[in-house]
Amino acid sequence: MAELAGVSAKTVSRVVNEDKAVKASTRGIVLDAMGRLGFRPNAQARQLRLGPGSSSIGILLEDPAGGYQGRFHHALLMACMEAGKFLTVELYLPGQSLNEVERFLANSEVKSLVLLPPLCDYGPLKTFLKAQGIRCVLISPMTPDSHYPSIAIDDRVAARNVTDYLLSLGHTRIAHITGHPDHAATLLRRQGYQEAFDAIGLPRPPKAYVAEGMFNFRSGIAAAETLLNLPERPTAIFASNDEMAAAACAVGHKMGLNIPQDLAVVGFDDAPISSAVWPALTTVRQPYLEMARRALQLFGDANEAVRFNEVQMRHVLQHEIIERETTLQIETPLAAPREAVRR
Predict the structure, then answer these.
(1) pTM above threshold 0.90
(2) What is the CATH number of the domain that holds 86?
(3) Are 255 and 237 in contact (CB under 8 A)?
(4) What is the CATH number of the domain that holds 16?
């Protein structure tokens, strides 16, 4: 391979091991030679040479059956396959003994962890991981962390875009189902929902139009029943995730409402349930695969120590509104034209 590429064997080794110091032009020549010879690096052999944990990424899941965590888990698995890395998964609940995490780290020899909400904000866990020298990437944390970088979409802007979108369809009686109070997204999405009304000079919806949920179907049922039994029923519901949005549709159907003619519903996350239910949910799509790929990039050198940094690295990625069957134009728009809303 070195002979075909016209470089030294050491240079080939540096390219195979993803040494960032190799010039892009040289890397291209070596990769071309690898392709012509049909060479593919042996991930298991590389793992043995680099040492335990060097190619392993871990993720702790609180609710693997949930739409958001399930989608991110799948995206991270795909990103790891692309990068030739191994993914190790463990269940962990806030408040559970940290001995369980210690056992997981010892058995898996993982040195790099992805933390999703609410674990990305769980202080005792992060303190423990820092003491163990574990590298972490936080996904959508509520509070900054000077040791760990984070990746997120702008939940406030996304929620405002959703509410703008519903206003553009002619709705003004727009209700909101919030999420779990321990998640940063819950507050940010509620703020974005309220700010959309401020921006066009309309009064904010009454407090009764904001119902508490917990990011699950059962809480969505209870919240939607409360909202849809108000004396002045909302004509649209923006739910903080797709499971609660699906629940709102179920309650609407039970009450004899036609969706979207009588009730528009928008969810968040583009979880599998959003396209599995009837009618299919209009929702906000998060860039799961791009977030997962960015997390792997941020881990960089698996042997690099965890360091304090006064400025947290926060990476904000773009969301997209996916328009499906639970929304419909009802009258003259009150907000920005629909084409101005990100889809």
Answers:
(1) no
(2) 3.40.50.2300
(3) no
(4) 1.10.260.40
